[in-house]
């Protein structure tokens, strides 16, 4: 390799390493906790951003579904509670959530509640009936 090539190769490595570092250190984790009453069954959740489809998740009662945000974009989620309840909301919104380590969601009988500290909750969405 010539000196020039070595130089640009190292420079590319530095760029890759620093963008990885920014991505990892700045990452927000989204948590969705099924906090429905006992025996109300599972909730099916499907979340996606512009470029990432997280697929369908079946969330049993009391279970926490979580993932690291990998795209700085809105993560849109749909929830289905058989037989007839559906809901949709933004699990992650850059303008609202960037800078927080975690975004917590509680899925309850009376709706969807947001918290950044897993302690204080604000209702953000409702169940609807099909
Ligand atoms: C959120 O709080 C609940 C109740 O205090 C606790 O059980 C749970 O582990 C917490 N979740 C995280 C991810 O810290």
From TrEMBL:
GO terms for cellular component: extracellular region. Keywords: Secreted, Self-incompatibility, Signal. It comes from Ziziphus jujuba var. spinosa. It is found in: Secreted. GO terms for biological process: rejection of self pollen. Belongs to the plant self-incompatibility (S1) protein family. It comes from the Eukaryota. Residues 1-27 form the signal peptide. This is S-protein homolog. Its main location: secreted. InterPro entries: Self-incomp_S1. Pfam families: Self-incomp_S1 (PF05938).
